[in-house]
From TrEMBL:
InterPro entries assigned: AB_hydrolase_fold, PLipase/COase/thioEstase
Domain Phospholipase/carboxylesterase/thioesterase: 7-194
Domain of life: Bacteria
Molecular function in Gene Ontology: hydrolase activity
Official protein name in the record: Putative hydrolase
Keywords: Hydrolase
SUPFAM superfamilies the record matches: alpha/beta-Hydrolases
Signal peptide: none
Coiled-coil blocks: none
Pfam families: Abhydrolase_2
Annotated organism of origin: Haploplasma axanthum
Amino acid sequence: MEHVFIDKKSKNVFILLHGTGGNEYDLVNVAEMIDKNTSILGIRGNVNEGGMNRFFKRFAPGIYDLESYKNETNHLVETIKELSNKYNFKLENVTVIGFSNGANIGLGMIQEFPSLINNYVLFSPDYINSDKGFSNLEGMNIFLSTSRNDTMVDFENIIKLLSKLKNENANLDIYYGLGHRIEHEALIDVKNWYTKILKK
């Protein structure tokens, strides 16, 4: 998968997963606002939809290809493992930051590989595979930004998602915003959240 690695000479690494139509550079400024000293690995989605980069296929907006979702989640995880070896960082020091489509495949990683990475920041996710739950998320730190006014997400789905994450004992911090976007106030909260994570 196409990617960029920005080495800040830190053991800590942000893995950035863009939204639909984005690329591996899209969230670099977001990451640097959270912590300018953490190294950055930006990854480009493997799927092209009408010229737009995505991490998995969909049949239409809000109607997802679950087979592609699972396959591309597996592919992303293998890519992350390979790149962690290439750039010599440990997955225990990684925080995944995803927006929209990138946040969705981040949730796929949590569902399918809960022991891989402990820290996730998910901006404007949807609950793609809502028939599949989560297992044993104790010790996992998740910051999730969502909105009751997000026209691209069914908020009832998000309520279901939050309940399942809590039931599996994830350390969950929730920011309620105004739409399908990354808000400045959310970034301030993430910065504070991340500072606490590093001190654990």
